[in-house]
Design a protein that fits this description.
Blueprint: E1 2-3, H1 19-32, E2 52-56, E3 65-66, E4 71-72, E5 82-86, H2 87-95, H3 111-136, H4 141-148
Antiparallel strand pairs: 1-3, 2-5, 3-4
Helix pairs in contact: 3-4
Length: about 170
Amino acid sequence: MILEPGTFRVSDYRKAIPTLVKLKCLLVAIAKGTIPHQKPHTFEPAVDAEHLRFDHRPPLEARPYDTAAGDFIPPQNDPAHLEALTDEQHDFRTFGRRPGAEITATTRGSDIGEAARIRNIKDSTAQHHAIMAAKAGLANNDMTAVLEGLAPAAKRQWPKRPFDTKGKRKFGP
């Protein structure tokens, strides 16, 4: 059976990345030039191993899971779908945080931002279908649960201000 993205917790199915796969990803990143392999005119590495992260492309949240094979589609530890990145590059892709920034102004385009946007689209679509089914008289228990949170707020009447306690308004100075 194939589980669609967003219908399960990714952390329940996530596996550790083997060292050989990490090494392959690192060599590809150095060859592409996305990670500098050494500081200029020295033999010191430009990035320490503790400041490297491995990023899944596409993100695991956007991949379906095959329960029969026991892995995502495409497989989560496939070197062709993993990239070695520095901490700053990884944070920008995942959270939308620019290198050197203390806070994130927007998450649009980042992995978590896109996952939240897709969740919101699915929720609003489910609410729309529930409303349309309720209007057509086809509502079932699942749809009524969705509609419970959609009850309109009770309308309140504008508060009335009574006249002066003596019954007359004062005019002029």
